[in-house]
Amino acid sequence: MAVAEKAAQKQAQPKETTNPYESMIQRFDVAAKIIGLDEETYNILKTPQRQYVVSLPVAMDNGKVQVFEGYRIIHNTSRGPSKGGIRYALEVNQDEVKALAAWMTWKCAIADIPYGGAKGGITVDASKLSLGELERLTRAYTRAMVDVFGVDKDIPAPDVATGPREMAWIVDEFSRMQGSFQPGVVTGKPLHLGGSEGRVEATGRGVNTAALEAMRQMRLDPRKATAAVQGFGNVGSISAKYMEDAGLRIVAISDHTGAFSNSKGISIGDAIKYRNANNGVLKGFTGGKLISNEELLALDVDVLAPCALENQIRQANAADVKAQLIVEGANGPTTAGADKILQEKGIIVVPDILANGGGVTVSYMEWTQNRFGYYYAEDEINKRADRSMSRAFENVWAVGKKYKVSMRIAAYIFALEKVAKAVQSRGHY
Description:
Layout: H1 3-12, H2 20-35, H3 39-46, E1 50-59, E2 65-76, E3 82-89, H4 94-110, E4 116-123, H5 131-144, E5 154-158, H6 164-178, H7 199-218, E6 226-230, H8 234-245, E7 249-255, E8 258-261, H9 268-277, E9 289-291, H10 293-297, E10 303-306, H11 315-318, E11 325-327, H12 336-344, E12 348-350, H13 352-355, H14 358-372, H15 378-403, H16 407-426
Parallel strand pairs: 3-4, 3-5, 6-7, 6-10, 10-11, 11-12
Antiparallel strand pairs: 1-2, 2-4, 7-8, 8-9
């Protein structure tokens, strides 16, 4: 571990935590100490600007009214309107949303996009709701947030258990309440409502670009490399497909129903077809041997891509990781307590706030297309996104070399310096 990072970590004294906000703050503290961030700016960036918690009464199909809790947290808007997804999950809570909002601030800064960070969510198991209940819940959330959302204020997007359908409902409800059609209020919309070409694939494509850039620096030939991908939703499956197309042999994949390994390689196209025909899950997949998700994380592969949920690599299992390279497709898949172990093992980690930035990059393009009324072809979107991801990687890699720190701390340093300048330039009152 680098001297500067060791000293800062010793002062911060990070302890193992599975609280995503505390985990974010531990990395933030290390980076802030290394660059000597002043106390005023530190306090501003440590705390979200605004936090909204709302109760959402929804008429259920059985005639009863159920009340759900919804959140929207704006972390920072110094560099532009806030941007961040909306997730529907039982695990959604205020600390998780605070962390995700802060990560969006850093992610947008690293991608050099003029946005701040935000995140939203509803504590709900969306799989238990009917289509009508889901729509009524989404519209209720939109009505509760009508003064928060806005094309120039706060722009949501899909996240866990949300997608183009939910974004279309938000556009419709928000537009009704504003009295005019405003497609730019969200991104990740269906193409026929102002969505962008390439948006569905954007995050997974960016994860692959980040992986290939890291492999180039490590002198790893993709055509001779193996990979394991945890998570087989939009991000995981598309990351795996792009990696396979680049020549990597994908020897393991997983979702919440099980993990599957095959040393000869798994056909990702076949796995995607199976998942799509099997209610969206991999359960029963015959293209590999059934293993656990913990076993997948410990496989002897060149590249490990955790693309599921937070806190997958922890102090308890970090020593078992054998991959040379970890590329974080998910938000917060590695705890702060695990970072030190991975560094001591010499494992390079491309952090989430860099690796999964392809999604917000294309979201920004969607937003600008909505504002200008001019839409790019898919190949143009992909070229722009690939260039942006490669540039972001190069910037963070250079910061890592300059300060002799891990890529994660380098990413935080790069983002903090950029956001801090915006805060300081705008002044305090």
